[in-house]
Each structure stands twice: as structure tokens, then as C-alpha cells.
């Protein structure tokens, strides 16, 4: 069965679904050295034998769906430190991202009703060459990426209503009012410098105001152009300067507490990290490796439906938020332009398209 997506021209595309497995193993078959080491450590920690697994991911993290000899299934996840060592300034930054994720996921499990996997065991490394291993429960449901495009409109609407409930739960959590990455300590919540999705090096500091944070975002965008071709660098700097010039007028519109309130945001809530059942109910919100605490972000996956459905579903989502929490709705609606600007800048590419969009939306600012 194909996954249905729509491109930026509104044309439907049929793509192969995200694979259910990148490899199968069962008892008696050979293992590579990394897999063998990981399985031995988990088996020793849990006093259970792993008899089968499916490889769910093997890029930055090795992710296995494992089956124990008692029939129980789970998800095993560990960082590939040898691979990641080239993507961070130090391995300690890589390890810190995972340690923070473990603490946040456990905190969410205890303090919300979000369908977050229960962490059943953390297997600590015995030396500097080994990585921490997480063993989690296997949640039911199918990956939204594979199902949403081909679902009926009624199912898509149910997904949007469920996504609104996720947004509202995150919005209502009592968070420290500083901009950065949430840090769960012993009984308290703190804020660490922001770590962007796909990165391990943190921002230089925690930010107290929206203005300070956007100054950092714009300056990071400028620095990223240092080694670009001259024409791209010139275009990129022109676009960034245009955005920076418009920011004071945007800040003036976002002058109420509701616009500045920091909330917890799942920074990688794409359709591959959401599980749903056949009726469109969300059964899993996965992969809290990257999260952020900032003025409210909106949860949306526009590329998985037609332009007509997208417009209607956005209205369904907004009305669901508005009917349950008007302040959350105001933050989402009023802050949409600024969120989009940040997303464009942090994408760090497509400057010709970005310039067209910026000139269209910033007229009069």
C-alpha cells in the first residue's frame, strides 16, 4: 500500500510507505558486533532472552523492536556513538541529549495522559565506548506517515482533534518561563540552552525574552551563510536583514502575557513520530529526543492531505483549540507569522523561495 502525500503545487504523490522493518533477526542467525553487544547487555540486565527483533531504525540511533522469550515485545533504543562523534563538539553533548530525553519522557508519563511509552529499563554503559540503552514498551497503532494521506476525511478530522488535545495538554503544563530546552531534575524543572532538532551543540545560553532569542536565531542564520556561494550569501543576508527589520513591529503585536508564555513543544512531532489506530485516535507520541520550551508552537502536518482538506482541517484544529482554551488559540493564531519566520530561518536554505514568501507576508512591516 502506497503513502499518499501532496507536493507544494498541490499535486498528489504516491510514495512507498516508511518501512516496517529494515532487517529481521531471530535466534540462530548471525549478528554484527554492535547488535550482539547490545543484546547481551539487555539480556543480562533484564534476565530475559531476546529471541527475535526487527530493525526499526539505524541512522543516529539503533532502534529495535525486540521479542523476549516470554512473548513480551518492547522497543530497544541506543545511540550510535561512533557515528555521532563526528556530529557534535563532544560526546558528552550527545549523551546529554539522551539523558534529558529519558528524564522528560518519565516526567510526561507521570504528569500527563499523553500516550508516551513507558521506559521499562535504562541499561547504563560500563565504559566510555558503550552507549546507554533504553528499553521501552511497544505502543499499539500505525505510523501516521503511512496512513494519513489515504484515510477518509472523517479519520483525518479525528486525528486533528486528537492533535489539538496534545497541544492543549502541553500548553497547560506549568513550565519555567525561560526559552530553551526543558531540564528535569530531582523533583524540579529547569531550563538548559536550546538544542535544535538534528543537532547536539546547544545554544550559547538560555534566553529570558523572545527578543533575545530571535536575535540569536537571526545571527545564527547569518553565520550559517559564511561559507555559501557569494550569490546565495548575498541573497540570504538580504532576506535575514528584511526579517530583522520587521521584528519590532511583530513584537509590538505580541505584547500580552498569552503571547509570551513559554510552553513545552515537541520539536520533532512529525508524522513518523505519531501512532494512530484505524479510527484516527492517537495511540503514541514518540521520540522526545528534541523538545523546546518557547512561546506556543502549533502542531501541524500539512503535506499529508490535499489543499482543500488542509484548509478545512486547519479550521477544525483551530476551532477545537478555541472551544477549549481561548488563550491557547490566541497564542497560536497571533504567533503564527513569527513561528513561520523562525522555521524558514532555521531551515537555512531555499532563499529564493524564502525571499518571495517574506516579501508577501511582511508587506507594511
UniProtKB/TrEMBL annotation:
Known SUPFAM superfamilies for this protein?
Protein kinase-like (PK-like)
Name of the featured protein: Kinase-like protein
Q: Name one GO molecular function term.
A: kinase activity
Residues annotated as domain Aminoglycoside phosphotransferase: 93-327
Name the species this protein comes from: Trametes coccinea (strain BRFM310) (Pycnoporus coccineus)
Q: Is the keyword Phosphoprotein in the record?
A: no
Which superkingdom, per the lineage? Eukaryota
Keywords, A to Z, come to: Kinase, Transferase
What InterPro entries does the entry give?
AGP_Transferase, Aminoglycoside_PTrfase, Kinase-like_dom_sf
Pfam families under this entry? APH
Amino acid at each position: 500500500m502506497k503513502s499518499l502525500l501532496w507536493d507544494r503545487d498541490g499535486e498528489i504523490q504516491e510514495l512507498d510507505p516508511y518501512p516496517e522493518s529494515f532487517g529481521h533477526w531471530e535466534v540462530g542467525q548471525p549478528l554484527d558486533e554492535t547488535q550482539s553487544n547490545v543484546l547481551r547487555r539487555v539480556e543480562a540486565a533484564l534476565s530475559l532472552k531476546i529471541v527475535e527483533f526487527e530493525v526499526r531504525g539505524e541512522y543516529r540511533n539503533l532502534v529495535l523492536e525486540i521479542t523476549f522469550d516470554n512473548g513480551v515485545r518492547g522497543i530497544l533504543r541506543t545511540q550510535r556513538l561512533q557515528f555521532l562523534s563526528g556530529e557534535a563538539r563532544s560526546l558528552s553533548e550527545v549523551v546529554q541529549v539522551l539523558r534529558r530525553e529519558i528524564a522528560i519522557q518519565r516526567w510526561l508519563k507521570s504528569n500527563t495522559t499523553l500516550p508516551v511509552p513507558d521506559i521499562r529499563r535504562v541499561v547504563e554503559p560500563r565504559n566510555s565506548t558503550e552507549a546507554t540503552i533504553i528499553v521501552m514498551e511497544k505502543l499499539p497503532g500505525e505510523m501516521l506517515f503511512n496512513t494519513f494521506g489515504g484515510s477518509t476525511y472523517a479519520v483525518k478530522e479525528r486525528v486533528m482533534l486528537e492533535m489539538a488535545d496534545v497541544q492543549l495538554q502541553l500548553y497547560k503544563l506549568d513550565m519555567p518561563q525561560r526559552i530553551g530546552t526543558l531540564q528535569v531534575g530531582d523533583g524540579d524543572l529547569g531550563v538548559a540552552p536550546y538544542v535544535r532538532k538534528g543537532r547536539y551543540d546547544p545554544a550559547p545560553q538560555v534566553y529570558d525574552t523572545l527578543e533575545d532569542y530571535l536575535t540569536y536565531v537571526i545571527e545564527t542564520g547569518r553565520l550559517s551563510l559564511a561559507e555559501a556561494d557569494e550569490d546565495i550569501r548575498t541573497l540570504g543576508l538580504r532576506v535575514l536583514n528584511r526579517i530583522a527589520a520587521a521584528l519590532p513591529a511583530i513584537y509590538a503585536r505580541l505584547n500580552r502575557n498569552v503571547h509570551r508564555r513559554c510552553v513545552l513543544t515537541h520539536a520533532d512531532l512529525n508524522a513518523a513520530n505519531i501512532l494512530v489506530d484505524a479510527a484516527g485516535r492517537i495511540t503514541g507520541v514518540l521520540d522526545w529526543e528534541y523538545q523546546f520550551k518557547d512561546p506556543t508552537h502549533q502542531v501541524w502536518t500539512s503535506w499529508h492531505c490535499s489543499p482543500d482538506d488542509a484548509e478545512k482541517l486547519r479550521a477544525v484544529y483551530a476551532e477545537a483549540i478555541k472551544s477549549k482554551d481561548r488563550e491557547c488559540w490566541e497564542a497560536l493564531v497571533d504567533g503564527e507569522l513569527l513561528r513561520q519566520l523562525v522555521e524558514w530561518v532555521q531551515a537555512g536554505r531555499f532563499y529564493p523561495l524564502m525571499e518571495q514568501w517574506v516579501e508577501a507576508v511582511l508587506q507594511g512591516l
